[in-house]
Amino acid sequence: MTSSDAPSVREARATRSTAAAGDLSTSSLTDDVSFLLARANALSLAAGNAALAPHGLKVRSYSVLALVADGARPSQRELAAFLRLDPSQVVALVDDLQRRGLVERRPDPADRRANVVRATDAGRALHALALESARVAERTLHADLDERERAQLAGLLRRIAFSD
């Protein structure tokens, strides 16, 4: 290769690289259900975190708040198991929500060694506002699905998520 050929070779490589990058959606990877779930999850988390940010929440902290705002009094261990998080992650999430006055820990009447988490009045009020923001983000993210398709997707994901 001569030095005069170098720019045209570089340009050709850049053109092929750009074309290949633009065609990634035709990759066989897009037939992989696990990949599709991971990509959809990443998009969902980004949309959810953006929608919840004005409320000072992220998807994980919102999930804890939503579970306890419904009146359930789960232990931190139950929250960790349900959300599939390490218990130390749940402790950090509950600590933050408690610091903000949104939840409180109480001794578990069934097991004095454990704490149950419950929402405060402020937590329930914030949950109501954040819930609407989360729903708007979900409707926007799933705008290409009609109501029947969205319900079908939710049902299929529920079967996968709670198959154990």
What's the quick description here?
The protein has 7 helices and 2 strands; from the N terminus they run αααααββαα. By secondary structure, the protein is mostly helical.
- Quote the beta fraction: 5-15%
Q: What are the secondary-structure elements, in order, as H or E?
A: HHHHHEEHH
Helix proportion: 55-70%
Label the structural class. mainly alpha
| Arithmetic mean of pLDDT | 88
End-to-end CA span: 61 Å
Order of strands, main sheet, comes to: 1-2
Return residue spans where pLDDT drops below 50 for at least 5 consecutive residues: 1-10, 12-19
Number of helices: 7
> What's the main sheet like?
2 strands, antiparallel
Q: Tell me the radius of gyration.
A: 23 Å
| Bulk shape | globular
How many E-type strands?
Answer: 2
